[in-house]
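Figure 3 (text version): structure tokens given as input.
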């Protein structure tokens, strides 16, 4: 599903440019425009899902696939010292783009408690 008002749907469609790291038929990974760590990649499903709060059983294969892709990206980018995966859902979590995305953050020490 494509939402014409959604930034990340428009990135999937190529209407908004991005620096791609990985792509297949289910998902896309690209560099965050405002990186919070030396490596900051966003992994998104190509279909519009608002956040991880919207997930149901029908999405299990997709989410499993995305995490396999996250592991591949981490290997390909040489994130051997570790990385963090974050997905914000809703207002209090600070979600600013309402299209499900997983942040991959690496390259600086991170607190064990917070992002
Ligand atoms: P959230 O705060 O919703 O968890 O994360 C949204 C992320 O998307 C932010 O880190 C923000 O920098 C990134 N972002 C917002 N708009 C764009 C864009 O047009 N291009 C790219 N590459 N990243 C974006
Ligand atoms: Zn979208």
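Below: residues designed for each position.
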């Amino acid at each position: 599903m494509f939402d014409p008002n959604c930034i990340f749907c428009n990135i999937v469609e190529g209407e908004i440019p991005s620096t791609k790291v990985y792509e297949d038929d289910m998902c896309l990974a690209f560099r965050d425009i405002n990186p919070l760590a030396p490596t900051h990649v966003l992994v998104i499903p190509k279909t519009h899902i608002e956040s991880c709060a919207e997930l149901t059983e029908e999405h299990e294969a997709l989410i499993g696939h995305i995490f396999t892709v996250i592991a591949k990206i981490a290997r390909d980018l040489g994130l051997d010292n570790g990385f963090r995966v974050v997905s914000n859902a809703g207002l209090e979590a600070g979600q600013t783009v309402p299209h499900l995305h997983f942040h991959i953050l690496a390259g600086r020490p991170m607190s064990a408690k917070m992002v």
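Residues 60-76 form the longest helix (17 residues).
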